[in-house]
Structures are given as structure tokens and as C-alpha cells.
Amino acid sequence: MEDLTRPNVRKRSRSEGGDADASREEEEEEKGESEESQTLENSLTFSDTMVALRLMHAQFPNMEKVTTQPFVLRSQLYSSVKDRTQVDRDLETLRKEKVLRLFKLNTGQDDHAIMFVEDYLKQMSIAVTKIGPKSHDPVFEWFKCYVIDTKLDVSIDHNELCSLLSCGGKVNDDRISLLMNAGLLSRQLIDSNAYWFTIPNFGSMLKGISQGRKEILSFLNRRKYKEMLMAPLEKKRLRMSPLDMRFHLRDLIGSGQLKTIQSPTGLLVRVSGD
């Protein structure tokens, strides 16, 4: 594939072989574009959950003005690892081994974000620093040492939270509020005595996940057969989400809202029927 970042050092006389050279270069460019467009198509199937996690972590979109550490949606793993039961088993094992954490999202009933613990701790550190002088309150260190390291579930009730934090020192409502203001906890709507563990500074990502889904589904639903080849679809830019097309396609395929069909011209992406 031609390196488009290098200067063109293959200038030739227009009077001699110009048309043939131009034609050859066009063919090479088309071939290069074709190879690049196969990226997602060739990385849709894995036999190992950790391999899929590492690849998606490496391919996480590089977004301007966004400091979110890489994360993966569970639906994206479902799109890439054939055995969903195995995915759930692997995630449970990795969670217990404190390699990663799962977070319940409010973008859908079964939506969960997965973040490697080291990335989550970085995200937490950035968020705590942003709250100013109160960032020096010891409750954040207690939360890290006694809660995060001990409670591996996606939620925690008030009594257990206070019990774990008290291993560090005196707990009061103000300190619980500090944790919530930093974006580390949010109250459950159905149970006011329980909290969800949350990823701080994640609001723009939640909005992007929801709006990106709607934009792609709306685009495909307007097409005659509600389908499009994966290669050109992956290249389209989204207006409503900072996350890229590849991120959203994995999510929508894994959640069953889109399906893929092999055709003579390549992999088709189609809106799933009712």
C-alpha cells in the first residue's frame, strides 16, 4: 500500500507514459483504500476475549478535546467473539483478578462499559485533580484502597460503602458527596440506598454512544434495502458522536441491531429485522 505521508518522488515527463503512470497510480490507490477498508471486516472474529479487548483498546478512537481513557462495550465483544457465554465467563474471571472493571451504563438496559483497572485509576486521578482544593481530602485514597480494591461489582449499597471507607477514617455525608461530585459514584434510581460505580468525566461518551447509534441506524434505514457494504460504511464520518464508525458498528452488530451478510462484493451490513 502506498505511503501517502511521503512526498511524491516519482515525477515523470507528461509526454512519456503519463497516462499509463496515472492509471497505475489510481489502481494502486484504489487497492490501498480497499486494504484499509478491510480493517473492521478482518477483525470481527476472535476466539479469545483478551485478544479482542487488547485490539479494541489499541483501536480506541483518538478524540480531540476528550480525555477519556480507552473503554470497550460488552456488546462490542459479543460482535467479535463467537461464544458469548465464554465472553461472560472471561469477563468474570478478569474482573475477579482485578484486571478490569465493568460499569453499568444508562444508555441501555444491558449496556456495560469495560475498562482496564490501570486506565480507570488514571481516569479517576484526572477527575479528582479537577475538583480543586477538595481533591486533597483523604476520602479519595480510602475509596481507591478500600473500596475499589475490595468491591468488584458494578454497584454497592450505602452501608457497605461506609463500612469500607471507615477503614481509612471518619465517614460522613459530605465525603460521600465528594465521591459523587468527582463522578466516581451515582445513586441508583430504583434504590436510594445503593450506588453505581461510574467512570468520571464520561458524560460526553454516554451522549456519543446514544447519538452515534441513532445516526447510523437512521442512515441505513433510509437506504433502499437498509444495508451497505462494510468497507464504504466504515469510512463515513459521524456528525453526532466523537467516537468513530468502527466503534459504533461493533456495538450495533454485537447488540443485534445490525447484522452482517457475506456477499460476492464483500461484507454487507444490514439493519436487523423485527
UniProtKB/TrEMBL annotation:
Biased composition range(s): Basic and acidic residues: 14-23
Compositional bias of kind Acidic residues: 24-38
Region (Disordered): 1-43
InterPro entries, A to Z: STK19-like (IPR018865)
Domain of life assignment: Eukaryota
PANTHER family the record matches: SERINE/THREONINE-PROTEIN KINASE 19, SERINE_THREONINE-PROTEIN KINASE 19
Family, per entry: Belongs to the STK19 family.
Name the record gives this protein: Serine/threonine-protein kinase 19
Organism, as annotated: Acorus calamus (Sweet flag)
